[in-house]
Amino acid sequence: MNKVSIVVPVYNEINTIDEILKKIENASFYGLEKEVILVDDMSTDGTREKLKELENKYKVFYHEKNQGKGAAIRTAMSNITGDIMVIQDADLEYDPNDYEDLIKLIVENKADVVYGSRLTGAKPSRSFMFTHLLGNKLLTFTTNLLYGATLTDMETCYKAFRASFLEGVEIKSDRFDFEPEITAKMLKKKARLFELPISYYGREYAEGKKITWKDGIHAILALLRFRFMD
């Protein structure tokens, strides 16, 4: 394996985009070449204009209307050239330095998919908003019940995939229901799926957090839908 594709869906992150890209540049991805793919989901706060300045350095794609995180990742997936794909939010909730351990399991052919869990207690984790923690536990429990898994954090952003294992996988979810859809499809494909602890520096709504209880409902529906259908 030679290259990792780092997929960054972006929506209104003008205050964090420079710093997260700096962190990605400074992080070691197990010595692999880095390919950064940014997808702007019709930002309106100046992020879009900022990304235009970076087109000579990164692969940058633009949506002409806001569609959601899943749609942005779908756009990126069709343009990756790496042997491994990882997902990185454009905020500062997750630390790119945590990716090296996740990627190592794939490079050493011990895993097809690796999730970074925020809930093991092994690394620093900012206290969750109670409703978010409750929702996360409910969604993860539902995943385990429906798919016979033992995950601790299905909704984590930090997911690493062997690119070849994603071949033929079509993402249909446009918003945050991407997380349950990709999890469902990886489990149905019998992926060797591992979890490792990661750090988490969560935001509150006043700091720019976007996910809401409505996304939790869509996630439950996605888990049910993809359990019994494609």
How does this structure look, described?
The protein has 230 residues and is α/β, with parallel strands linked by helices. It has a single domain (3-228), classed as Spore Coat Polysaccharide Biosynthesis Protein SpsA, Chain A (Alpha-Beta Complex), CATH 3.90.550.10. It has seven helices and seven strands. The protein has helices at 17-26, 47-52, 69-77, 99-107, 130-147, 178-188, 213-228; strands at 3-10, 33-40, 59-62, 84-87, 113-117, 159-162, 193-197. The chain has a seven-stranded mixed sheet, sandwiched between helices. The protein is globular. The two termini are 30 Å apart.
Structural class: alpha/beta
**How would you write the strand order of the largest sheet?**
3-2-1-4-6-5-7
Give the biggest sheet. 7 strands, mixed
Radius of gyration, taken over Cα atoms and rounded to an integer in Å: 16 Å
Helix tally equals 7
Number of separate domains: 1
Architecture (CATH level 2) name: Alpha-Beta Complex
Q: CATH topology, which one? A: Spore Coat Polysaccharide Biosynthesis Protein SpsA, Chain A
Mean pLDDT: 92
Give the overall shape, derived from the CA principal axes: globular
User: What is the highest CATH level, the class?
Assistant: Alpha Beta
